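Cross-check.
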Amino acid sequence: MRLREEHIIVTNHPTAPRRRVLLKLSGEAFGGGQLGVNPGVVSTIAQEIAEAAQEVEVAVVVGGGNFFRGAELSKSGLERSRADYMGMLGTVMNALALQDFLEQAGTETRVQSAIEMRQVAEPYLPLRAVRHMEKGRVVIFGAGAGLPYFSTDTVAAQRALEVRATEVLVAKNGVDGVYTADPRTDPSATKLHHVTYNDALVKGLKVVDSTAFSLCMDNGMSMRVFGMEPAGNVTKALRGEEMGTLVTT
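Predicted model, tokenized:
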């Protein structure tokens, strides 16, 4: 008796890769305008990130301006490198606070530090960060670049490139995008819904560090600058909704 051969064709339908973004949060956001960490403010930020993290791969770079600003401390007499390292330690404190509130919101989180401190954070390893995000974990990058003279804006651009993010999201306090001038001091300032990096650099639009603009421009990384208010804006930006100002090459 001949056995009939059956050929079964299996078609794989790979799911589309999830959106991956790098969110930059200023230290001032953590303090709610005050020195130190405001638990209510950080809890709200964490809940907005946690909501989006269910469908988006999220990495976060945090500033430390609610504790120390290296550039400002150096103007008061501290040696610039030492002042910058103090600022980096402030970013780690913010990273740990955000991690705690994210985990309270039910989101698994890892902190990676550019300055080694194994008791509280993993060392910064880009491939490990990517793996964490692929598993649905939020990764928070602390301690800046681990080097003086680098702003956390620049670190956000660099980390976004290393983890192959879709775009950099820069959350701002008190301003909802890029304007032709400072809207807090110039009533004639108008909001730009789209601007190129070159135009932003030529016109001296300082809402983001110029080095960060240059790094993104040179590597084709888009950036969206948006306001943290009203509530829900962080979740919307992480999910890819249009808001604020889109900056591209």
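Residues 49 and 235 are 6 Å apart (CA to CA). Confidence is low (pLDDT under 50) at residues 5-12. Passed to J.P. for a second look.
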